[in-house]
Specification:
Layout lengths: L2 E4 L2 E4 L2 E4 L8 H19 L2 H11 L1 E2 L4 E2 L4 H4 L2 H16 L3 H18 L12 H10 L3 E5 L4 H10 L8 E3 L12 H9 L7 E5 L2 H10 L3 E5 L6 H5 L4 E3 L7 E2 L1
Parallel strand pairs: 3-6, 3-8, 6-7, 8-9, 9-10
Antiparallel strand pairs: 1-2, 1-11, 4-5
């Protein structure tokens, strides 16, 4: 069984589960692409007031392109963000709740339809080389993302790393998103691997907690996202600069 080096120790594992944005893909371009599409869709379908309130609430300044990485845009899966958007529409427009939800859903669907692959995805330096070496050394590779399955797959195919994945789990593939263990448990089942033979690699506390809740062998945090080293060190088994710094051997 191939081995990863975790805190100077070599541990055997079969499966490595990666987060997407902030871990394999640069986070900001993806969030900006999503925000722009959703903002424009809400403006056209409802009005600019609702779109401006949405931007403020989810954590994006559309003028300066500054992102609040503690906010829903950066952390929440689409299903949660839709509830936020529905509430904004209800409050601003005094809409009946079910109609507000329908408007929010329609706005997001139109935003998705307007976006084109790779949806702002830009590979973090060294990722492709690392994934290629991991596969060559016998590791199975999975992706667990708050993005939808379809968009994540198309984005990764466009930037050239989709071919390295054995399993891809999107937020729409499970009942409970991060930090619940559902994504990892499903990835392990599809990869025919026990969680105790898997390692989680991600850039956020949600990724690490998902790994803990799934009882994986180890949780590795990377600093290519928006979470500080101090917060990650308090939760992960080890913190490294990026996926390119993973150490492993047969």
């Amino acid at each position: 069984m191939p081995k990863l080096q975790i805190d100077r120790k070599l541990i055997e594992c079969k499966l490595i589960v990666f987060d997407k944005d902030g871990t394999l893909i640069e986070q900001k371009p993806v969030l900006l692409a999503l925000a722009q599409a959703r903002y424009q869709s809400l403006t056209k379908l409802v009005n600019a007031q609702v779109a401006d309130e949405w931007a403020k609430t989810v954590g994006i300044n559309m003028h300066t392109q500054e992102i609040d990485y503690r906010g829903p845009l950066a952390f929440a899966p689409t299903r949660e963000e839709l509830l936020i958007t529905s509430t904004i529409i209800r409050q601003c427009e005094n809409e009946e709740w079910n109609h507000a939800k329908e408007l929010a859903q329609e706005a997001y669907e139109k935003a998705d339809g307007a976006m084109k692959p790779p949806y702002g995805a830009v590979l973090i330096e060294g990722v492709e080389q690392t994934l290629r070496k991991l596969k060559a050394d016998g590791f199975k590779i999975a992706l667990a993302t708050t993005d939808s399955h379809r968009r994540a797959q198309r984005a990764l195919d466009c930037v050239g790393i989709g071919r390295y994945l054995d399993v891809l789990i999107g937020d729409d593939d499970v009942e409970n998103g991060k930090p619940a263990p559902d994504m990892i448990l499903k990835a392990c089942a599809l990869a025919e691997c026990l969680p105790s033979d898997a390692v989680m690699v991600g850039d956020s506390l949600g990724d690490v907690l998902m790994g803990r809740n799934a009882h994986v062998k180890a949780c590795v945090a990377v600093l290519t996202g928006s979470t500080s080293r101090e917060r990650l060190e308090a939760a992960a088994d080890t913190v490294i600069p990026s996926v390119a710094e993973l150490q492993f051997k047969k």
